[in-house]
User: Fold these one by one.
Assistant:
Number 1:
Amino acid sequence: MKKIYLHPIPVRVWHWVNALSFIVLIITGVQIRYHELLGLTKFETAVDIHNIFGFILIFNFFIWVVYYFFTGKIKIYIPPLRIKKFVLGSMRQARYYGYGLFMGDENPHHPSPDNKFNPMQQIAYLSIMLLLIPLQLVSGLFLWDIKMFEEWINLAGGIKIVDTIHVFLFLFFSSFIFVHVYLATLGHTPMAHIKAMVTGYEEEEEHEPASA
């Protein structure tokens, strides 16, 4: 196996802070909305924890923005500009996930520091990082202090619209975590990708050059 340094320290720290924050926010969010059923903590305690980790997530998002935009590394999230290349790459990757993986085929995408994500990951992560997470953070901020952000809430269509956006995105991110963890187990061993996000080094099988 050859080792590729794929995840620098800032990326790993951001990733695990993000993961912990999302998990805590999901649990406390369920507790806030369905406190009669869950009953893990007092309602007020759940709200306080939810708010604290909400601001941690906002701060962590700004770390992501600064790191990826000011270093130029945001390009790893940009799908191929040629439509044909993007479509064909996505089709190959979808076939691998839906069929080839179970037949022992090789993953068509080989990550490198400058080409970290396959086309499907690029379009998914770009949408999440530049649209869905900002929407979740802004809607959460509005709900944190309705009076302070009253004008902005009215511009967005009212408190029910803001709350609905926040809840639907909560459902999306809750589902995304399960999918993300499942995909993380699809390395050469079930823990390979998870280990890489701890050590920074992704392991990949080294192929012998073809003989003439």
Number 2:
Amino acid sequence: MTTDIAAIVGAAVKGLGFELVDFERAGGGMMRIFIDKPNGISVENCVDVSNHLTRLFAVENIDYSRLEVSSPGLDRPLKSLDDFRRFSGFPVKVRLNTTVDSRKRFDGWVERVEGEAITFKLLADVIASTKVKTVKRSNAKSKTDLIHTGRIDGDVVEEKRITVMLDDIDRARLIPDV
């Protein structure tokens, strides 16, 4: 039944011009809906979606006790290939279902998506305990215009890449740029 409700919610949210990022059904009849759109989500957007879903649930006779509608936050989860394409060039924290290149967890940048494969650009393990500078180009307009430098004490650090299939990703989240 959860899948049917998720499909109903997804269609309704899409019809209102938003993307359904995540749908959670918690104990006690609680539903959490996370929505997004390219320019971000406002409180008014959440209110509009909440009001629409409340009416829709009444018509569809969907039982729930509490409904929460919100943005996915700065550490937005990435779940689909479209998510990874949209956030290409952004820093992410990834946890895998399986070990790839002796890793189950890593931080890196989404480099590209080809078919079902996602390639992440990492910095070598030597900098794991060292801060990597993220600097903005003088003409930068967005996070995708950031330059990630891999220099430690004047030495250039070798970049490393990992390519995984979408099904091998247990969880991926954006790393907030604060």
Number 3:
Amino acid sequence: MTRKRIGRIAIYPGTFDPLTNGHVDIIQRGSTLFDWIVVAILINPDKSPLFSIAERTEIANCVFDGMPNVEVDTFEGLLVDYAKRRNAKVIVRGLRAVSDFEYEMQMALMNRRLSPDLETVLMMPSEPYTYLSSRLVKEVFALGGSVEGLVPGLVEKRLADNSKLLPPFKE
């Protein structure tokens, strides 16, 4: 259930499958810039996530439990429609490398076309997380590598608990 928020509301959308320390870094720093930051977990029936939407929501709620201006929610459909429902004026996106820029720019411009009053703020992660992605975490874990320091401890534990459920890594 979402609550009505007042002030500068930012949406940080993603699948967060799994939530990484790069995501956490962006959310923590974003929470100092905005009155509220909503971690908006996308429900995408076309994807086969490692963690269910309920698990991803639970994990994010646990990780951000001590941050009173961070809220976890889920959404389907167009991000701009969700942002309007939440009275958000800002979308926060992480920008790890130059290779991310073209995609993020296209998304930001399309969102602006669909909702001219919605701004996109691109944030660079802290240096240790510039290469980190959920996809890489899943690949490393599936191949037996350590993800310690790449994901919150709770995610690392959940990955270990569900290791039999991981599909084999495919190139």
Number 4:
Amino acid sequence: MPERTNQEWITALGRAGPERELALVDLRTLLVRGLSYAMADRAQVSEADIDGFVQEALLKVLYNLHSFRWESRFTTWAQKIAVHEAFTELRRKRWENVSLDEMIAGYEGDFNPSALTDAGPSPEDQLTQHGLLELVERLIVEELTDRQRQAILGVVFAGMPTEEVARRMGTNRMRSTS
């Protein structure tokens, strides 16, 4: 496989034809090798899984070629996308057969926002935290809709990925624009 510069990768992948196809084969080979190494300690990840992760990563790389910022090697950037894709899919699969309603049922009556705080704050910090926790609890109970409350409980207290909660609730994940 020929060594390519960042510009050569971008140029080859940005065109249609045999040059692009060859670059995709080379990039796929690199991503499979890198993901196989990154996932070596995960017994539940098969070669078929890695192939699937790489296919999704290749699509994302092609779709996002314009966003490559030239701050690293192109192959490093592509590998980061592949690893992110793999871990996102593994997190999704982890929660695939878990009922959101059953999972949060145990939290509905025992809502305790103090579980989110540091165990050793100063007295001044404790007073501030207490006030903030009361405010957060009031906002969650009085201001949020049932669906918003369900999403908060699923993500913050149960630890389910935001994308999975959104999928189960039939909505999309809202992203910050800042």
